[in-house]
Structures are given as C-alpha cells and as structure tokens.
Amino acid sequence: MKVLIVSDIHGSLDSALAIQRIFEEEKCEKIICLGDVLYHGPRNDLPPQYKPKEVIAILNQYADQIICVQGNCDAEVDQMVLDFPILPFYDATINDKTCHFEHGHHLKMDGHVAQMVFFGHTHIPQMEEKNDTIYWNPGSITLPKNGSKRSYLIWENHLITLKDIDGNELFSFHYE
Q: Regarding the domain delimited by 2-174, which CATH topology (the fold level of the hierarchy) does it fall under?
C-alpha cells in the first residue's frame, strides 16, 4: 500500500493543493493526516493562503481515502464541515507493521506496543528508534519550524521516505 502522511495543514490552501498534487502524482491509496487541519492556533502565524473553506472542499474530495486524527487546534465544529471523521488516534497494521497514529501533543515516547508511531505537532521532521518502536514525524506541510522544510512522508511497501514540498527526497528508511 502507498500512503501519504501529512501533518499540520493549518487551513493553508497552498498546502491542500500540494497534498492533492502529491496524492495524484505519487498514486497513493490513502492519506493519513496527523491533525491540525483547518485552524492555525494562537501560537502560529497565519499560514500562507489561509483559506479553510477551500481546504475543506479539497480534502472532502478524498473523504473515502483520508484517515485523520485530531490535533490540538482541531475543534468539534471542524467535524461538521469535513466529510471524514477526525479520530482521537488511529491504530492499524500497514505494510506489515503495527502502527499508532496520533497528533503528538500528548505523546509519550515510552511503552508503545506498536512497531511504528506516527505523530505531528512539533512541525519538525523526526525519525527516532526507542525500545523497539520507530517514531516518525513528517514535519509540517505548512509551517515548518527549526529551519526544517515543508515536508511529508510517503510510505510504500517497506520504504518510508521524507520529502520536501517539491518532492525532493530528504531521508529514506527501508525495513525488512
């Protein structure tokens, strides 16, 4: 299965259009969004092209292909306009790995039974192995922090690749 993993869209039309382009160009089967879909929150600057209504229209086109977890900036009202559920977390087996997906604002990097944990929130790409679990953060597709680039993950079969918004490979990890 080929999966596009994004986080922290924060209502940016430019980022929603990028997700649409990447999903189609990469021929992905699923989009997993790690939260903070429509609102930028009080700690972030207004994102470029902040147009949440247009973001809603784009993402709703993929409602059957999106799995989304709730971020700290997501509200109940968001669920009223999105045609896909915003879940507190999501657990699944994907590409032969047990996985846990959450936004990350309550993440504890200990004691996970999943082989892979995916989270956002920090806006900083990360891959760290701890106690037989690999923790992944795709960074933010809209508001990167600490000098990182706007980024996302592509997961196909046994290869996970971090790419910047232009599709340039930043890091890849192959597992057996």
A: Purple Acid Phosphatase; chain A, domain 2 (3.60.21)
The model's pTM is 0.96
Q: Identify the DSSP state of 171.
A: E
What amino acid occupies position 158? Answer: H
Judge contact between 60 and 16, C-beta under 8 A: no
Q: Which residue has the tokens 């795709």?
A: 138
Report pLDDT digits (tens) over 6-56.
999 999 999 999 999 999 999 999 999 999 999 988 888 889 899 999 999
Query: What's the alpha-carbon Rg for the chain, to the nearest Å?
Result: 15
Nearest Cα neighbor of 9 from 40, 32, 30, 31 is 40
DSSP letter, residue 154: E
- Yes or no: say if 153 and 161 are a contact pair by the CB < 8 Å rule: yes
